[in-house]
Amino acid sequence: MRQTVTENRLFSKKDLRKLIIPLILEQTLAITVGMADTMMISSAGEAAVSGVSLVDMFNNLIISVLAALATGGAVVTSQCIGAGRREEACRSARQLVFTEAAITIGISVLVLLFHRQILGLFFGQIEADVMQNAIIYLIISVFSFPLLAVYDSCAALYRSMGNAQITLKISLLMNVINVVGNAIGVYVLKLGVAGVAIPSLVSRGVAGVVLFTLLHNPDNLVFLTRGKFKVDATIVKRILFIGIPSGIENGIFQLGRVLVVSIIAAFGTSQIAANGVANSLDSMGCIVGQAMSLAMITVIGRCVGAGEEGQVRYYTKKLLGETYFYTAVINSIILLLLPWILQIYGLGEETTRLSYILVMIHDGMAIFLWPASFVLPNMLRACNDVKYTMVVSIFSMITFRIGFSYVFGVHMGWMAVGVWAAMVIDWVFRVLCFVGRYLAGTWRKKCGLVAPTA
């Protein structure tokens, strides 16, 4: 049996490289541009940095929900491809794109109508100049949400096909537009936070339109058909079966992060700015992990569709092991170069010192905890075990990340450092739960795989 599985791997080493390397480069581009945004806007002052970092936390809440819906579609499409049902895969693709776009338009309208109330609810009483920058940045950002939804869903479908090269090219185009636009908006036109937000809107619009157009090519393994759109309740239900629990999980996770930042916001502008800078740097250490998370959906989804439990286990161990290795290498390099990296931001001495401590906490612990905490759950999601990951993530967020943030940050007076210490406790709990779930093998029943014989 093992010999047969080895000879008929669904993904060769070349296939994995073609999928994963573009994903890593794409994540690198996205994170690098995020850092460039922070560095450029820092020239407008710490109030601008703080306003952007606060709104980015809220934006990530919305974006994570959209990404979860795209994940639901990617899982369904990957399983259809693995089972050899191309026509059904194409139908699911069309349902995903139009359903996600419709949901996002509704969300965007609500945010536009209640933007001031939303900022007040999440971040409470913050300094007036920070609030003004936050309002400008949020209003412009909201118009990009539907465009980003189209891009996310189309990109997820290309990844399901194993074609990450096209999404890399479009990502490169999007980020070039973003960086050039930022430079013009911030340094030439002196638009402040608007100089960062407007290029993001334009770049997301271009990327969404281009990918949507390319996905209509019938030469693709999965493509969008033309004609009047009609809701297919059966397919939408399958997408939402994965997407809704994942969306709730991602939404609560990001909401928890927003609430945690609201705690930090009470500590003053220096703490907010340090948190924003540390967040942008911490993303670098998770580049490979983020790429592997996306790859896990495609690879494991195909294996589940093909009914190959042995390959599910093989690729889970392979992808997770590689994630641990590269996460350790990248984070070690960041920690070694950190004093020089922080000088680029040009912030005050106290903000720089605090940023250093926060990055040390995150990257030092990420080496041991991040892959199992955030990459392994995507294996469970690809196996339809989405409710378990949702319950664990929500419980851990509320109990450990939020609860202990109050204990360490407020009551014990550790401020931002206490909040990040609570984050580590959250990671530990997630690792214990997800590794335990994988070893128990409960996920086999969720995706209809037969338990292995002795």
Automatic annotation (TrEMBL):
InterPro entries: MATE_fam, MATE_MdtK, MdtK-like
GO molecular function: antiporter activity; xenobiotic transmembrane transporter activity
Highest taxon, organism lineage: Bacteria
Subcellular localization(s) per the UniProt record: Cell membrane
Keywords recorded for this protein, A-Z: Antiport, Cell membrane, Ion transport, Membrane, Transmembrane, Transmembrane helix, Transport
Entries under Pfam families matching the protein: MatE (PF01554)
Membrane topology: Multi-pass membrane protein
Gene Ontology process terms (BP): monoatomic ion transport
NCBIfam families per UniProt: matE
Similarity comment text for this entry: Belongs to the multi antimicrobial extrusion (MATE) (TC 2.A.66.1) family.
Protein name: Probable multidrug resistance protein NorM
Record organism: Roseburia hominis (strain DSM 16839 / JCM 17582 / NCIMB 14029 / A2-183)
